[in-house]
UniProtKB/TrEMBL annotation:
Taxonomic lineage of the native organism: Eukaryota, Metazoa, Chordata, Craniata, Vertebrata
A Pfam family of this chain: Annexin
Keywords (A to Z) from UniProt: Annexin, Calcium, Calcium/phospholipid-binding, Repeat
InterPro entries linked: Annexin, Annexin_repeat, Annexin_repeat_CS, Annexin_sf
Region Disordered, annotated ranges: 1-129
PANTHER family: ANNEXIN
Keyword Repeat attributed: yes
Organism: Mola mola (Ocean sunfish)
Name used for this protein in its record: Annexin
């Protein structure tokens, strides 16, 4: 089934009926216009002839200089990984990579690695748009009814996740803003895909898989405006299984999706501790504050109270500290303070009988991520043991797994998510909720880096692993989010 004009296989918008069709012979003079003078641009009669001493025309016009325009001295040399995206993609946001005066390059700013969602300033509203509550209810229903094993993921630093210090050269996501996307035209595609007998799943996959989150979310309201029908209801009546779940969560804002995942991890029998740690350890302060606002508005209970009532001990303290959204986000590192923090961690664990968990909690939850990476290096030099191994020697249970996850996410978040994805797909069965959460949330943050880490660590591309572990339309849409093979 094809649709005239939208979306085209090439990904662009072909000329629409009623536009300006190409005129024969390019641009002939229009009636009443200014036709070009015959023979090019000779001096018009009565015009301004060349003045003596002016700039005479060069022989042969202006030939291109050899090699184009060489970079001026002191300019901006090419950066590894390219420059940040141009118009039409994701412009650098707070927490991105901005050009610094006099440096000639791009420098990581606070909260680096992601696109920070600022509460109340161009971010996602606290009050749910039409249809989003239905999405969350449906996702929770599917999590309970289907044989889905819960797990974990992230979106750090802003917009869903921060790349570690070693990554982040330019935009590293697999999904970008689609140039010229219009939600009113996009919902026409969705309507045609669902109208009549059967469903054109490929049209839905192509559309949603080529739009960024901020371009997908407005489709819910645009659909109701255009057709007077509920998009979520129509999609649920046409789709099933994991494909339905994936489509529905792609139409949710990032903060609302996080709030729904935390709610699902807490409610009912048992707790998905890994999901809680994943989200809270990888989001920026602004994102955590937005998640907290939405959680309270949706569920009538604060995020902190929900976590406190469902967890206990030092693990509860770890989660409560993380959900405050009060981590230092300055990019600078004080080497002397890093050495002091490393000594405190050593004294609280390896160098004493028992463990002072509160000291670990205070440092891992309050210090900035660049600072903590320096602390981990100092710790390794000081006691000859990796901080993760020390945590495993000193702690156990949920606290151990939670602390280790925080350390891994701070050290190298793409490697951390690559590990999470691998665990979600290895063995019997697939942890689809974890797989969906990571693929959706990281697709606009650091999916390219996750793919690199996946190949390096497991000797197999993420694309191929998804292809072999999933099927049908669900697989097709996941592969669109993956963005390609390595």
């Amino acid at each position: 089934m094809s649709y005239p004009g939208y979306p085209s296989p090439s990904g662009g918008y072909p000329p629409q009926a009623g536009g300006y069709p190409p005129q024969p012979g390019a641009f002939p003079p229009q009636a009443g216009g200014y036709p070009p003078a015959q023979g090019g641009y000779p001096p018009a009669a009565g015009g301004y002839p060349p003045q003596a001493g002016g700039y005479p025309p060069q022989a042969g016009g202006y030939p291109p200089a050899a090699g184009g325009y060489p970079p001026a001295g002191g300019g901006y040399p090419p950066q590894a990984g390219g420059y940040p995206p141009s118009a039409g993609g994701f412009p650098p946001q707070t927490g991105g990579y901005q050009q610094q005066p006099g440096t000639g390059g791009y420098q990581q700013q606070p909260g680096a690695g992601g696109y920070q969602q600022q509460p109340g300033a161009g971010g996602y509203p606290s009050v749910p748009p039409a249809g989003e509550k239905q999405i969350m209810d449906k996702c929770m229903y599917m999590g309970k009814k289907s044989k889905v094993i819960l797990s974990h993921i992230s979106f750090a630093g802003g917009g869903w996740g921060a790349a570690p210090g070693g990554y982040g050269k330019g935009f590293r996501g697999s999904i970008k803003d689609f140039p010229g996307a219009d939600p009113l035209r996009d919902v026409e595609v969705l309507r045609k895909a669902m109208k009549g007998f059967g469903t054109d799943e490929n049209a839905i996959i192509e559309l949603l898989g080529s739009r960024s989150n901020k371009q997908r979310v407005p489709m819910v309201a645009a659909y109701k405006t255009t057709y007077g029908k509920d998009l979520i209801h129509d999609l649920k009546s046409e789709l099933t299984g994991d494909f339905e779940h994936l489509v529905l969560v792609m139409l949710m804002s990032s903060a609302r999706f996080d709030a729904a995942e935390i709610r699902e991890a807490i409610k009912g029998a048992g707790t998905d501790e890994a999901c809680l740690i994943e989200i809270l350890s990888s989001r920026s302060n602004a994102e955590i504050c937005e998640i907290s606002k939405i959680y309270k508005a949706e569920y009538g209970k604060s995020l902190e109270d929900s976590i406190s009532s469902d967890t206990s001990g030092h693990f509860r303290r770890l989660l409560v500290s993380l959900c405050q959204g009060n981590r230092d986000e300055r990019p600078t590192v004080d080497v002397s303070l890093a050495k002091q923090d490393a000594q405190k961690l050593y004294a609280a664990g390896e160098n004493k009988v028992g463990t002072d968990e509160s000291q670990f909690n205070a440092i891992l939850c309050a210090r900035s991520k660049p600072h903590l990476r320096a602390v981990f290096q100092e710790y390794q030099r000081m006691c000859g043991r990796d901080i993760e191994k020390s945590i495993c020697r000193e702690m156990s249970g949920n606290l151990e797994s939670g602390m280790v996850a925080v350390v891994k996410c701070i050290k190298n978040s793409p490697a951390y998510f690559a590990e999470r994805l691998h665990k979600a797909m290895q063995g019997a069965g697939t942890k689809d909720r974890t797989l969906i959460r990571i693929m959706v949330s990281r697709s606009e943050v650091d999916m390219l880096d996750i793919r690199q880490e996946y190949v390096r660590t497991y000797g197999k591309s993420l694309y191929n692993h998804i292809s072999g572990d999933t099927s049908g339309d669900y697989k097709k849409l996941l592969l669109k989010l993956c963005g390609g093979n390595d």
